[in-house]
Amino acid sequence: MSVKTARASGVANVEIDYSKCTACGLCADICGGGLVGAIFKENGKMVVDQQRHFGCIGCGQCMAICPENCISVEGRTISKNDTIDFVKERKPSYEEFFSLLSSRRAVRNYLERDVEQEKIDKIIEGVKQAPVGLPPSDVEILVLKGHSKVREFVTDIINAIDHRKWIFGPVIRSFIGLFSKETADLFETYLYPTALFYIRDLKAGKDGLLFNAPLVLYFHASKYADPADAFIAATYAMLTAEALGLATSFAGTSSNFLRHNGKLKRKYNIGKNNRHGIALLIGYPKYEYKRRLHKSLSNVFYY
Ligand SMILES: Cc1cc2nc3c(=O)[nH]c(=O)nc-3n(C[C@H](O)[C@H](O)[C@H](O)COP(=O)(O)O)c2cc1C
Ligand code: SF4
Ligand code: SF4
């Protein structure tokens, strides 16, 4: 049985060059954690068995680990040409990486400066490195490049909210409250007032939704994808952008309004049934933070 996703079906073809293979077993060990994979060691020889579990899902891990470079995978969007030798470069230390993480703030004030295409390309390359529930990635990105594109998107969404603001009214809220107190509270204390702020701001020529960012990436993915995929991809984009000296913020509310609007989904090329992720605002920061904050979690529980 093979796993179907939006971009792949069937198994990928796996070939081992036995003239070079030393039967070290590394490929079998990492393929599906040595348990649910497609490569096994039997009687001292590597065998590919596409029937035992899901067959080869095309993750490419075996090609990446083989010391003899003698295994190739073709199909499910990858091929033997998709491996790239590591350059001997140092990975950032914990201190360096933590510095990137802890200096990041949600930035909602941007300079009137466009983000260069070269940096956008680098951010997208960073996103491609994100893990996904099942390869190949079903994550899609809507790129809104430049203030006028972002403004058009914001105007479309807020006009749609304005037409449907009755959704947040007391009748629907009390109906939702029958099923989930938390969602009803969220509607009353956050979504409804936020919708009103957005409408008011737009009428005043301000953008309270995406804060006039010069670049917005909106992440979504097919229904085959894990619900987390688009969010993980967006987080990779955020960290890559930060590493490029850009400032970022997520804007979660736009997806709450976009996901129910077929007309806008068609306009922005978002699949009718796609899972909605999140919008990431990117730009050059207007202000420089002078210090970082101590932050906390709700709970860390060791069992
Ligand atoms: C899932 C998610 C959704 C968010 N949605 C919004 C949003 O719609 N509008 C906004 O201004 N900020 C949004 N943010 C940014 C948060 O408000 C911000 O991260 C939080 O206040 C903490 O600030 P910090 O990121 O500077 O530490 C979102 C952040 C996350 C993680
Ligand atoms: S590509 Fe992934 S699933 Fe396929 S054989 Fe290699 S490690 Fe296994
Ligand atoms: S990792 Fe390479 S050399 Fe080792 S068993 Fe697999 S194919 Fe053979």
From TrEMBL:
Belongs to the nitroreductase family. It comes from Anaerobacterium chartisolvens. PROSITE patterns: 4FE4S_FER_1, 4FE4S_FER_2. Its cofactor is FMN. Keywords: Flavoprotein, FMN, Iron, Iron-sulfur, Metal-binding, Oxidoreductase. This is NAD-dependent dihydropyrimidine dehydrogenase PreA subunit. GO terms for molecular function: iron-sulfur cluster binding; metal ion binding; oxidoreductase activity. InterPro entries: 4Fe4S_Fe-S-bd, 4Fe4S_Fe_S_CS, Nitroreductase, Nitroreductase-like.
